[in-house]
Specification:
Helix content: 25-40%
Distance between the termini: 22 Å
Number of strands: 28
Strand content: 25-35%
CATH topology of the largest domain: Nucleotidyltransferase, domain 5
Structural class: alpha+beta
CATH class of the largest domain: Alpha Beta
C-alpha cells in the first residue's frame, strides 16, 4: 500500500501536502517549489510538460499551452462559460460526443478531466520524489459551489492519473480544517476563497474537532483570471489611445497583455505603482512592431477591479443570510486563494466583516494542508480521533414536473450525506413509463437550471392519470455525488442509479485514458 496525500487542484496553481509526524506540510519539488502552476504544455509527439516549465511556454506558444482548464470542468460545449473561455484562450474548445466542452490542442481533442489528470499526475510525482514512497490515494479539493457534474469530472481526472480519490472535500472546508484542527476552537468562521477561476464563501461552526458547514455560496466563474482580463483590457485601451492600434481581435496580442497584467497585479501587492513594458505587442498595418510602455498604480487598478470585488460581497450577503448570521457575528475570517494576497481584496474583506482576516496561514497552501489532514484521518490506523466534517450541498436539487417546472427535493445548504423523498403521480392516462429528469439550481424553471441527468422508469401498470404514484428518492453522499431512486409505490417496480450527467465520460472512456506506469 502507498501513502495518501491532500491535493488542491486549483485553476491557477496546484499544491500537494502530507501529514508527517503529526504535522501537515506542503511537499516541494527538486527546485524547492511547493506551489505549481496548473498549466499543461503540449510539445512534439506526445511530450507533455506541467507546472512552472509549462508556464514559461505560454508567452511563445499559447496555442499549445493549456491554462485554467478547471474552468471548463464539467461544462457543456454550448454553455456561457465555455463561450467566455473561447474568447480568451489560444487553444481550441471542441464539442465532445456527450456535448461536453473539450480541449483541442495540436490536432488532438482531449476531455477536460484528461488535461486535469496531467496536473494530478504531476502532483503525485512531486509527492513521490519528496517522500520516496508510492502515492496511490488522495483527498482532492473542489470549489464549494461545484455541481455534481464537476465533482464527477474531478473523480474521473483522479482515476485517469492513477490515483484513488479517497474523498472530495470543498476548498473552504479544507481551509477551516487546517485552521482549526487540534486547536480547540469554538467559533463561527467565514472562509473567503477567491482563487484563479472561482469564488466561494462558506460559513462554518467549529466545536473542537467538529467542523460543521452552515451555509455556502459561490460563483464558479469569478476569480483572478477575470482581474487579469480587466487590467489587460485597460492596457489595450492605453495602447490604442497612444498608437491607434486596436488589438481586441488579436488573440496573441491580448494574451501578451494578460501576462503583463498579471505581472503588474502581483507587483502592486508590494508597490504603490509599477511600470508596464510590453515589447512587440503587435505589428501595425505597415509591419512595424508596436510596443507598450505605461505606468499603473493601485488607485487606477482599484477603480478597474472594484466591481469584481463587490460581486464577491453579493455572494457573501447570500451565505450570511442562509446562515442566519450577520458579518459582526463571525468570529474569524480566513482568506484562501492567490487573489486574497492582493491588498485591495484584503482591505475590502476587512471592511466588509469589520475585522482583520486571520493572517497566519498561507492562502496558497492552506487548502492542500486541510486536504492532507483529512487524508490522514481517513487512512490512519491509530485510535486518535480525527476531524468530523459536516458539509452541505451547495445548490438545490429537484426533478422536472409538468409545464417545465422544477420540484425541489433537497434544498441548498442541506447537510450531507442526506436523503429526501417525495411522491409524484402520472400526468397522462395509461402511462406505462415516466422520465425522471434531475436538475440542480435555484430557479423553479428547468430552463434556468443545470440538467444533471435523466432516466426512464418503465413497466408501470396502465391506469387513469393520477392513479399511479411514483416515489422519488434523492441521496447525496459525503462527496456530494447524487444518487436517485424512482419506485412505483403499488408494484414496487423501481430503478436506482447514480446520476450520470449527460456530459460525463463513460467508464470505458476513463479506463482508455488512464496513464500507464511509464507516464503519460
Amino acid at each position: 500500500m502507498g501513502i495518501a496525500v491532500g491535493i488542491d487542484l486549483g485553476t491557477s496553481n496546484s499544491v500537494v501536502a502530507l501529514v508527517r509526524d503529526g504535522t501537515a506540510e506542503v511537499l516541494q519539488d527538486g527546485d524547492g517549489l511547493g506551489v505549481h502552476p496548473s498549466v499543461v504544455a503540449f510539445g512534439y509527439g506526445r511530450s507533455v510538460v506541467i507546472g512552472a516549465r509549462a508556464r514559461e511556454q505560454l508567452s511563445y506558444a499559447p496555442e499549445s499551452t493549456v491554462t485554467s482548464a478547471k474552468r471548463l470542468m464539467g461544462r457543456r460545449y454550448n454553455s456561457e462559460e465555455a463561450e467566455r473561455m473561447r474568447r480568451n484562450v489560444a487553444w481550441g474548445i471542441a464539442a465532445g460526443p456527450h456535448g461536453d466542452a473539450r480541449v483541442r490542442v495540436q490536432g488532438r481533442v482531449l476531455a477536460v478531466p484528461e488535461v486535469s489528470a496531467h496536473i494530478l499526475a504531476h502532483m503525485k510525482s512531486v509527492a513521490e520524489a519528496a517522500t520516496g514512497d508510492v502515492v496511490d490515494g488522495a483527498v482532492i479539493t473542489v470549489p464549494a459551489y461545484f455541481n455534481d457534474q464537476q465533482r464527477q469530472a474531478t473523480r474521473d481526472a483522479a482515476r485517469i492519473a492513477g490515483l484513488e480519490c479517497l474523498r472530495i472535500i470543498n476548498e473552504p472546508t479544507a481551509a477551516a480544517l487546517a485552521y482549526g484542527f487540534g486547536q480547540g476552537r469554538r467559533q463561527h468562521v467565514a472562509v473567503y476563497d477567491l482563487g484563479g477561476g472561482t469564488f466561494d464563501i462558506s460559513i462554518l461552526r467549529l466545536d473542537d474537532d467538529l467542523f460543521e458547514v452552515i451555509s455556502t455560496s459561490g460563483d464558479t466563474f469569478l476569480g483572478g483570471d477575470d482581474f487579469d482580463v480587466t487590467i489587460a483590457d485597460h492596457l489595450a485601451g492605453i495602447l490604442q489611445q497612444e498608437t491607434g492600434v486596436d488589438v481586441s481581435e488579436n488573440l496573441g496580442a491580448r494574451i501578451r497583455l494578460r501576462i503583463a497584467a498579471e505581472a503588474a497585479k502581483r507587483a502592486l501587492s508590494d508597490a504603490d505603482a509599477v511600470d508596464v513594458r510590453v515589447p512587440s505587442v503587435v505589428k501595425d498595418s505597415g509591419g512595424e512592431s508596436v510596443h507598450l510602455s505605461t505606468r499603473v498604480d493601485r488607485n487606477m487598478v482599484r477603480q478597474l477591479v472594484t466591481p469584481l470585488i463587490q460581486r464577491t460581497f453579493v455572494v457573501c450577503d447570500d451565505a450570511l443570510s442562509q446562515a442566519s448570521l450577520t458579518a459582526a457575528q463571525v468570529d474569524a475570517v480566513l482568506l484562501v486563494g492567490g487573489m486574497t494576497r492582493f491588498p485591495l481584496v484584503r482591505e475590502a474583506v476587512a471592511h466588509y466583516f469589520g475585522k482583520r482576516p486571520f493572517a497566519h496561514l498561507n492562502p496558497d497552501e492552506v487548502v492542500a494542508l486541510g486536504a492532507a489532514i483529512q487524508a490522514n484521518s481517513l487512512t490512519s490506523f491509530t485510535e486518535a480521533a480525527g476531524a468530523v466534517l459536516l458539509d452541505v450541498t451547495p445548490q438545490t436539487l429537484g426533478v422536472r414536473t409538468v409545464g417545465g417546472f422544477v420540484e425541489p427535493l433537497v434544498p441548498r445548504n442541506s447537510p450531507i450525506p442526506t436523503q429526501s423523498s417525495k411522491t409524484f403521480h402520472t400526468a397522462h392516462d395509461n402511462q406505462t413509463e415516466v422520465r425522471i429528469s434531475v436538475f440542480q439550481g435555484e430557479s423553479r424553471m428547468t430552463t434556468d437550471n443545470e440538467l444533471l441527468g435523466e432516466f426512464v422508469l418503465e413497466g408501470l401498470e396502465p391506469a387513469p392519470r393520477g392513479v399511479v404514484r411514483i416515489e422519488v428518492t434523492f441521496a447525496i453522499d459525503a462527496d456530494g455525488i447524487v444518487h436517485v431512486t424512482a419506485e412505483d409505490t403499488a408494484t414496487r417496480v423501481a430503478q436506482s442509479l447514480r446520476i450520470e450527467a449527460s456530459s460525463k465520460l463513460s467508464h470505458e472512456e476513463v479506463e482508455q485514458m488512464r496513464f500507464d506506469e511509464l507516464g503519460f
